[in-house]
Each structure stands twice: as structure tokens, then as C-alpha cells.
Specification:
Largest sheet: 3 strands, antiparallel
Number of domains: 1
Strand content: 5-15%
CATH class: Mainly Alpha
Helix content: 55-70%
Strand order of the largest sheet: 1-3-2
CATH superfamily: Winged helix-like DNA-binding domain superfamily/Winged helix DNA-binding domain
CATH topology: Arc Repressor Mutant, subunit A
Number of helices: 6
Distance between the termini: 25 Å
CATH architecture: Orthogonal Bundle
Structural class: alpha+beta
Length: 129
């Protein structure tokens, strides 16, 4: 399942978004329409501040995100999607929907809906560490 998803993301990169890797798609998916503070992205992504900065650099250079001062607190930085970033998120969502439709076709829509609900619930559980 993970290998298929990774393969789909690699295909999307080859077709439309050269240079983007799975970690870039993951970061882009974390960004709400109004943007997110760098400090919150560190928590949500599980990355260190340094690793997040390294992952954001190619996204900013590629025009997928912009990093700007937070209007609510000029000391904080806000990461926002650009039009290019929104295009990536839309393409990624469409590709994921195609994959999920294939899985639903293979196991039946009801079973897939149940599996998806369980995965969504597990994804938000606190870590055991």
C-alpha cells in the first residue's frame, strides 16, 4: 500500500512536478489555506526545525510555498501555499482519489470505507513513546 502511494507520488513528480519527493507532498498537505506557522509545522511534521527548513527550501525555490512574517506576530514566520502549491495539492488529492477508488473496487466500497475510517482513527492516536 505504501509502496503504491510512493510510486504514485514519484509518477506525479515525473509527470508534472520535477524534484518533489514524498516528504514535500506530505508537507504541502499539512498547510491549511491561511498558512501555518513554522513552529506548528515542526510539531505536525515531526521534523526538527533544521530538517523542516531543509525540506521547505526546495518548495520555496520552486514557487510552491512562500515563507513570510506572520501578520499576527511579526517575530513568527508563516508558510503559505502559492498558486503552484495549491496546484500540487489538487493533483495529489486527485491521484489519491484514483488510488482509493482502485482499492475500493478491489475490496468493495463498504470494506474500503471501514478500512479508511480505521486508518484515519489510527493516524490521530498519540504516539506511545
Amino acid at each position: 500500500m505504501l509502496l503504491q502511494l510512493r510510486g504514485e507520488l514519484h509518477g506525479l513528480s515525473a509527470e508534472r512536478f520535477p524534484g518533489l519527493r514524498a516528504r514535500h507532498y506530505r508537507l504541502l498537505s499539512f498547510l491549511p489555506p491561511e498558512g501555518e506557522r513554522v513552529s506548528r509545522l515542526v510539531v505536525r511534521s515531526g521534523l526538527t526545525k533544521q530538517a523542516l527548513a531543509q525540506a521547505l527550501d526546495p518548495l520555496e525555490a520552486g514557487g510552491y510555498v512562500e515563507v513570510v512574517p506572520d501578520p499576527a506576530d511579526r517575530r513568527a514566520r508563516l508558510v503559505r501555499l502559492t498558486d503552484g502549491g495549491r496546484e500540487v495539492v489538487g493533483a495529489m488529492s486527485a491521484r489519491l482519489a484514483e488510488v482509493e477508488a482502485g482499492w475500493a473496487g478491489a475490496v468493495g466500497p463498504e470494506r474500503w470505507a471501514t478500512a479508511r475510517a480505521v486508518l484515519a482513527q489510527v493516524a490521530v492516536l498519540p504516539s506511545s513513546s
